[in-house]
Amino acid sequence: MRKIVIVLVGVILITVGLMSGCTKNTPTNNSEKDTDEDGYNDTVDAFPSDSTEWNDSDGDGVGDNTDAFPQDANETKDTDGDGVGDNADAFPNDPTEWRDSDGDGVGDNADFYPHDPTRWEKPPSDAFLNTAEPFLLKLDLQDSKLQSYANTILTGCDASNTECFVNAVYRHVLMNYTCLAAPKNNTTLQTPQETIQKKQGTCEDLSILLCSLLSNIGLTSYLVFTNTHVYAMVSDANADDLWNVAEQSLIHHAEDVFGEPIQQSYYQTYTLPSMGVLYAGGEEGKTYADVIDSMTIDYNIQSDQQLTLFVVPTWTEYNEFMKGDFANFTPIDQWNFTNTTGTIPELSTYGGIMLYNAGAQTAAVTVDLFFSFQPSFYKTYNKDALTVFSIWGKDALLLDPTLDDFGFPGYDANVSGVKKAINPETKEYVTLP
After folding, report:
1. At what angle do helices 162-176 and 239-258 cross, to 10 degrees?
2. Do 327 and 410 share a domain, yes or no?
C-alpha cells in the first residue's frame, strides 16, 4: 500500500509541474496582445480586429491604407481619381470635372461660361472674337502695380469724380507716351507694363494701356475696333461733366504753351504828359505760338484831356511810332476821345492799343482793360465734337490715343469703318451706331 501511495503522489506532482510550466508561457499583459496578428499591439492599433489597418491619421474612422486622403478628415474617397475627394467633388464619377461654379450642372472645365447658369456651350466660331482675342489677352485688368501707377495720376481729383479720373488718365497717356505710326499687328502687341517701360507704343498698345489703367481704378472700359484702328472706351461717365473737366485741362495746357493766362485784367491810373504814349498789349516778338487764334480787348478809358486811341497789330508799330517812322506805322484803327468804352474784337495778331496825348496839357487817365485770348483748340476740340455712344444702357465715350496734346476724351476723329466695342471680361461685343 505504501508503494502505491508514493507512486500516485509522484504522478500528481509531475502533472502539477507540467501545468505550472504551461501557465508561465501565456501572456497576462493586454499591452502585448495583437488580436488581428498584424504586428501592431491592440493598444496602438486603431483597428485591433482588422489585420489590413492599424492607423487613422485624420481620425475620420477610415484607416490610412484605405483612406484616399489620410490627412483630410473631410475626405476618404476619390472615386474618379482626379485628386478631389468625393465630398468636395461636384462630379465624383468624372475625372475631368470637379467644380460647378454657377450650379448649372455643367462642370467648369466644359462650361464656356462657368459663371453664367443660363448658358454653357461654346459659341460658334466668331471672326471678330478671333481678331480681338490677342488684344484682350494683353490687357491686365487687375494688377496692384498698375493700380498704384494709376492712382499717382489721379492726384487732385475728388474721390467721387469719375470724369476727373477719365480725363486725368487719358491726358496723362497723351502727354507722356509717344504714339508710333504702325499698322495693327497682333504679333507685336505690348503688355501695359511693357508700354509703361518704353513710354511708347502703337495706338493698339496705348489703347490696351488705357483700358487696363481705367479698369484698375474701378471704371468699366472696353476696346473698340475698326478695320484699321483700335480705341479704348470708358462707360458711365457724364458727358457734360467730362467736357467741363477736359476743357479746363486744355486751357491750362494752352496757357503753359502760350506762357500767359488766357484772361487778363488791367486797371491803372496814369499821368500822361503832352506827346506821351501809353501802350498795352503783346511784348516785342511775342506771338500766339500756334495755341491762340485771336485776342479781344474790352476797354473803359477815362481821361480829362482828349486822347487818340490806336489799335495796333504788333509791338513793332509802337516802336515805329516812337521813332517817328510814320511811314511804317500802320494801325488797324484809330479815333479821338475823352471817355470811351467798347470792345476791340478778335485781333488775329498779338498787338494791343496805344493811347497818345497830342495836346499841350498833361492828361489824367484811368485805364480799365480786359484781355481775352481764344485758344486754337476750340476749332477742333469743343463740346460740339464730343460724341456719346450708348452701350448696354450706359453712356460711353471713345478715348483715342492718337490725338495730339489737345485731344480730349469723347472726341471721335471719324475714322472710317464700322466700330465694334468689346467687354474684355465677358467678351460680349456690340456695333456702335
Report:
1. 40
2. no
Asked if residue 391 lies in contact with residue 421, where contact means CB atoms within 8 angstroms, the answer is yes
Rounded Cα gap, residues 42 and 343, in angstroms: 111
pLDDT, tens digit, 9 for 90 and up, residues 72-118: 989 988 999 999 999 999 999 999 999 999 999 999 999 989 999 99
CA distance readout (Å), 143 to 19, 81, 201, 213, 219? 85, 35, 20, 9, 14
C-alpha cell at 365: 487817365
In a domain, 389, yes or no: yes
The distance from CA 130 to its chain's CA centroid, rounded to whole angstroms, is 24
Residue 311 belongs to domain spanning: 274-361
> Which residue type occupies 416?
S
- In tens, the pLDDT along 316-352 reads 999 999 999 999 999 999 999 999 999 999 999 999 9
DSSP classification of residue 29: -
The beta strands (E) that lie in 188-262 are given as 200-202, 221-225, 230-235
CB 317 within 8 A of CB 351: yes
Residue 229 in contact with residue 421, Cβ under 8 Å? no
pTM for this structure? Answer: 0.70
Count the domains in the chain: 2
